[in-house]
Amino acid sequence: MSSVVTSLEDDEFAHPYDFQVTPDVDESTDGVCEDSLHRCTLRAALEEAGNLGLYADVMFGASGTLDMDESQGFFVPPDNSIISAIGVIVRVTANPTTPIFVIDNGVTIYGLHLANALQGIVIGGNQNLIGTVAEHKNFITNMTDSGILIAGDNNKIVGNIIGLDRDETQDGSRFGVFVVGKNNVIGGSLPDQGNVISGNDTGIGVYTIVKETYIHGNRIGTNRAGTQAAPNRIGIDNIGPNAIIGTDTPDGRNVISGNTESGILFGLDASNCHVVDNYIGTDISGTLSIPNRDGITIGPGSDTCNILHNLIKFNTQNGILVSGLNLTDLSTRHILISGNTIQENGNAGIAITGNATDNIIGSSLTESHDPNEISYNGQVGIVLVQGLGDPQRNTIRDNIFLDNTSYGIRIVSGQGGIQPPVFESYTDDGNTAIVVGIHNLAGATIDLYAGDSNQANRLEGIEWLGSGPVDGNGFFSIQISSCICDSIVATATDPMGNTSEFSDGIGTITGIYDYTSARDKVSAFPNPFNETTNIQVDLFQAGDVLLQLNDVAGYTLKTLYQGHLDAGTHRFNCSPDELAYGIYFYQLSIQNHVIKTGKLVYLR
Questions:
Q1: 78 upstream amide cis, omega within 30 of 0
Q2: Cβ neighbours of residue 511 under 8 Å, at least 6 residues apart?
Q3: Which of 287, 331, 518, 575 is most exposed, with the fewest beta carbons within 10 Å of its own?
Q4: 96 preceded by cis ω (within 30°)?
Q5: In whole angstroms, what is the distance from residue 539 CA to residue 535 CA?
Q6: Cα R_g (the chain), whole angstroms
Q7: 526: cis peptide before it, omega within 30°?
Q8: Using 50, 70 and 90 to split pLDDT, how confident is the model at 519?
Q9: Contact, 342 vs 377, CB < 8 A?
Q10: Which pLDDT band holds residue 484 (cuts at 50, 70, 90)?
């Protein structure tokens, strides 16, 4: 039943009315929108269609404010109704203890401004559409509870402005949208499907056990243009199982910025959740600062969630805060943080505190994932600190750290007390290099990185080079491609998954002497000899050389040469003189590394 609302009055006379002067006709079922005062009101249109068992197609034909009379009850459209305002501005208000619309199934509402009620729209059923991708958006402001309360399943909230007035004044609600049902979509992955949800206490709240909430393409905490803050206190709160926030398309990206506390807060029952390809702390271009306090807070009890390929930047405290409690089922665990750009956050790129266990930042010991870039953060790239419990078994591998203020990785507490490895040597033949060192945990995995100094002149790893195990004797020897870098640093990860801080560096790598090259040679002739012999040194490149004569026990008997030699062939005379006949050894060291030895036989 189609109706054009011409009166914005709502009183006891606003219902469809049966005029008693026409006893043979029931005007409340004649398909004409008319109340007892001959007005077409919103109540008359909805109730007339309901009386006939039809859906209502209601369009407002007059601008102004409709003050709902709560004594007449809230508005209840029949299933599959359409309520719209096109070309007019209609503001619908109610008592702060009463909802405006309560809908069941298949209802579409767009073009209205709902304000000053308990809830703007309560969705009890399924397949409803609130909003439009066209210019006829709903504005929903100043509700004592929720702008939209979704108790049903499979509903879509598209293109609305929730918490901002038409002039962008912040006039929010306790919740912009509160979700109790499952498989609901807030926003979308196509142009203009996203909502602006700003100026509320909580932009989007999700009841903890709700499953399959999809949040795509919204601006949460900014103005309509996505260029300035219009903060909620929390952008998205208490995400339940199987939520997906963002998509891998630009139009499906949420901009979650400007919120005074967390941009996203994971709750007790968050599991199998995905936060993908969002801008968190920036404007819509990803270049300007609109900070949250913390970009993402992963709270106690969160389990098996993925934070993937987001830009998390400019937040005033932490880019990501992972926090667990030392109580049953309140650890925070199995969080994968991969492929994100985490930059210029005021405190830490990632802070892990309390009973946070078995989380992966970058790659694990058994699976490769995209590295995070963790750079330019105000204090530290990643910090692990004690809270109600200690962080344990958090694996940090194959990430890019660059110019964080004090540390790349800082372990204040937890991680099983694992220490970084210690280097012993680096050898390079121009194509491959071998890095040798020690660690106290046999079976640990050593990861090598090209190192770079941060603002505190501490080294952190800017590029993963390779990895290898610690053997049963506490040694490691790892072959990598030659590193054109200033230094090399390393972390250790034990078999349980605890990763250490970065080690001290080995370097400078550029120009280091190639002291394992097979092209360096030393030989003696004649050998055996009975008076004197010549020792020939063939150097592939120039270096500082020490040539010694040793006895069979390794003690030095004579230094034959010590000094710098150019590349090429050099000969040195060796006369044992006062030494007894027998067996001796010559030893060639280059750049303080022993690389060649040979046996000499002194005969009568």
A1: no
A2: none
A3: 518
A4: no
A5: 13
A6: 36
A7: yes
A8: low
A9: yes
A10: confident
Closest CA to 184 of 159, 206, 214, 216: 214
Cα separation, 47 vs 67, in Å, equals 18
**Residue 250, phi-psi category: left (phi > 0), alpha (psi -120 to 50), beta (remainder):** alpha
The pair of three-digit structure tokens given for residue 285, joined into one six-digit string: 């271009």
pLDDT at 22 over 90: no
Tell me which residue has tokens 């509402």. 109
330 Rama class: left (phi>0) / alpha (psi -120 to 50) / beta: alpha
Pick the most confident of 57-61, 131-135, 522-526, 580-584. Answer: 57-61
Position of tokens 């203009």? 192
Average pLDDT of 12-23?
83
For residue 510, what pLDDT band results from cuts at 50, 70 and 90?
Answer: very low
The fraction of the chain above a pLDDT of 90, given in percent, is: 71
- Euclidean distance between CA atoms 162 and 212, whole angstroms: 22
What is the residue-averaged pLDDT of the chain? 91
Q: CA-to-CA distance for 151 and 383, rounded, in angstroms? A: 40
Residues comprising the chain, all counted: 604
User: What is the C-alpha to C-alpha distance for residues 85 and 5, in angstroms, rounded to an integer?
Assistant: 10
Are the beta carbons of 39 and 9 closer than 8 angstroms?
yes
Q: Do the strands 506-507 and 112-115 form a parallel or antiparallel pair, or are they unpaired? A: unpaired
Residue linked to tokens 């011409």: 6
